[in-house]
Give the backbone structure.
Amino acid sequence: MNSQDIFILAIESSCDDTSAAVLHNDKVLSNVVANQHIHEAYGGVVPELASRAHQQNIVPVVHQALAKANIDKNSLSAIAFTRGPGLMGSLLVGTSFAKSLSLGLGVPLIEVNHMQAHILAHFIEDPEMAKPEFPFLAVTISGGHTQIVRVMDYFEMEVIGETIDDAVGEAFDKSAKILGLPYPGGPLIDKNAAQGDPKTFEFPIPKVGGLDFSFSGFKTSVLYFIQKEVEKDPDFIEHHMNDICASIQDTIIRILMKKIKKAVKETGIRKVAIGGGVSANSGIRKAMQDAEKELGWQTFIPKFEYTTDNAAMIGIVGYHKYLKGDFTDETIAAKARFSI
Ligand code: KG4
Ligand code: ZN
């Protein structure tokens, strides 16, 4: 081992996934994620239950991450953790655990902004992933976030557009709920959409200024449409499930692409990197690939395991902060609202 060997243990607990990862420099040795299935019964994340599940999961998940990486805790160079943004009760579990471990081991503590981590996930060293060059545009789309960010350097980022209400993942999940699909409904809409015709039904594209997004009106328009049709045909959803899903997905993608194209035009930056759970959507992936072919963009889509909430992305931020000597002390507190 030499001074180039930096081992970071990273912890993520901002929402409903408890995750721990070990990185050797910018390579991921392990990335363990415990999903919380308890929320499925409630049709969405219940914050109180999420905190309790994190409490139960955190120690076994960290043990597993260390075991899979084959690293002894005494070899760790630093502990990185998600400080925010996220659910306060969830963040407290990871923050308190990370602080205690760093004190116990006598190694530095590194605070990480979850949104920066979704973006810097593109810099994980992996043969299946290309790293974007600065400057680029990052589009983070998930159940909790929808942002377009101008990324000038690792820690020089500016949010140039974001949702003014629901996140795009919520638009998928809430539409799915209206159709009677279980939570999280995004992947199910994607699956059904593959068998449907996106031109069958039309939903309005919201009018929002600049590079911002709005999805709450979209969800309401889906609700009213379904209520109206079900009055005429009680089995409307069953008869048209695939076409409804395809039409919903197509509209959401048109809303996203319209603003991404506007952002490229306004900034002159033609490199676009997407991240967050919704970047798993086959429609958005195709739209990005089409933009690459037709508009000459360079697009970057990380491996699926690094797009949804995970600790490896916290670890890569931890690594870059370690190189800068950017450490924090044990008085640090979790921050539910935390801008980039
Ligand atoms: O990043 P993530 O795992 O967690 C956060 O919300 O931060 O994202 C989860 C979101 C959910 O809303 C889920 O429905 C959505 O990502 N999602 C999808 C797909 N896979 C996951 N939405 C549309 N199509 C998919 N294939
Ligand atoms: Zn996230």
